[in-house]
Design goal:
The chain is of the alpha/beta class and 390 residues long. It has twelve helices and seven strands. The chain has two domains: 188 residues, CDP-alcohol phosphotransferase transmembrane (TM) domain (Four Helix Bundle (Hemerythrin (Met), subunit A), Up-down Bundle), CATH 1.20.120; 168 residues, Maf protein (Alpha-Beta Complex), CATH 3.90.950.
């Protein structure tokens, strides 16, 4: 994926152009909302339509970047800034024009500052905090609430002004609640930054660098780079998984991409494993993930083959297809080629699906060559199975 251009110039990809247009349109929206033009019958609707159009460009630039394989550092930096500028600007103007209390934008700004600071802290520790569904729901609800607030006093709604005001406030309160909940969720996922505990399953960690000695929290221990030690750990853990599954009278399965059957191979090397493992699906190509495991084409298009979303659907599809109690899925880049700036070599996404509907995802970045990455992936997948059985 493009991270820049020669000479240090901004990579003017279509996605980055859309992002910049969104930023340029924000002052236009502010002027449209504040300037004395039009009537009470037309101005609110025009402003609402303009805000909605600017908001929708966020989905457009994301789609362009992923579908064209043009995710850039500039885009990753500017896109969230554009979103925050749009929301904060619109809310601030609504304080003046629609009687919105000032504490609403204050809560949202404080949340963004805290989460941004948390992300900076995480980045300094080599940790990337995955976006949550709470955050996405908060963004959507906030956008809709702003749209309704813009038109609640329109002349066409005068006869139902009370109802319109109630709906606007209901949506805004839901947005505020989701704002607070998503902030708490981010801090909960990042609790290991402030403790010595093991990293949360939804936190993406970076690998240890060979020869640097001590590792950062959540990085791959240096001893795992030893192939003999890795294989011994895998053998012991596979035996533990088989014993636990047999004792619990449950069945397990695998859905593998980069490991090509190594996980199921490790499990089936244990005597008695035929009582617990129903089988495994090896799905390298995207079309196999879609046709056999039921991964949606939209998921692969929007998030990529190497993503937690794809891993989760691989695990769920594998569990259903194999009719097992627990299924672990892996998808990643083992190397030596195939890596990108967003998913470098060693990036592996894991998914775990259980019959009770529970799913778990995580991302790891492993150090080493192709064999080391694959073996570390097997070990981590077995750890997920062990934890699910426990």
């Amino acid at each position: 994926m493009a991270e820049g251009t020669k000479g240090g110039s901004i990579p003017w990809t279509p996605a980055n152009v859309v992002t910049c247009v969104r930023i340029v349109m924000i002052p236009v929206l502010i002027v449209a909302m504040l300037a004395p033009w039009g009537s009470a019958a037309s101005k609110p609707w025009v402003c609402m339509a303009l805000f909605a159009l600017i908001s929708l460009t966020d989905s457009l630039d994301g789609y362009l970047a992923r579908s064209r394989n043009e995710v850039t550092t500039f885009g990753k930096f500017m896109d969230p800034i554009a979103d925050k500028l749009l929301v904060v600007s619109a809310l601030t103007v609504l304080v003046q024009t629609s009687g919105l209390p000032s504490w609403v934008p204050i809560v949202i700004v404080v949340r963004e500052l805290l989460v941004s600071g948390l992300r900076m802290l995480a980045a300094s520790a080599g940790v990337v905090i995955a976006a949550s569904y709470f955050g996405k729901a908060k963004t959507l609800c906030t956008m809709v609430a702003i749209c309704v607030f813009m038109v609640k006093d329109a002349a066409q709604l005068a006869s139902v002004a009370g109802i319109a005001n109630t709906i606007a406030w209901f949506l805004m309160i839901v947005a505020i609640v989701l704002t607070i909940v998503s902030m708490i969720d981010y801090f909960a996922k990042s609790r290991t930054l402030f403790t010595n505990d093991e990293p949360d399953a939804h936190v993406t960690t970076t690998p240890a660098v060979a020869g640097q000695g001590a590792t950062r929290p959540g990085s791959v221990p240096a001893e795992r780079s030893d192939l003999a030690a890795l294989r011994a750990q895998i053998e012991r853990l596979a035996a533990e998984v088989v014993a636990s599954a047999a004792a619990a009278h449950v069945t397990i399965g695998t859905a593998e991409s980069l490991t090509g059957g190594l996980i199921s191979g490790a499990i089936t090397s244990v005597p008695g494993s035929s009582e617990v493992i129903a089988g495994g699906v090896t799905s390298y190509m995207a079309r196999v993930k879609e046709s056999v495991l039921g991964v949606s084409h939209e998921t692969i298009t929007d998030h990529g083959v190497v993503s937690e979303q794809t891993a989760e659907q691989m695990a769920s599809g594998g569990r259903a297809r194999l009719d097992v109690d627990h299924c672990v899925a892996v998808t990643g880049v083992a190397g030596p080629g195939g890596g990108t700036s967003e998913t470098p070599v060693g990036t592996v996404c894991f998914g775990m699906a259980s019959r009770d509907g529970a799913t778990t995802t995580m991302t790891r970045h492993f150090a080493g060559d192709r064999e080391q990455v694959r073996l570390q992936t097997v070990l981590c997948a077995l750890e997920m199975l062990r934890d699910a059985l426990a």
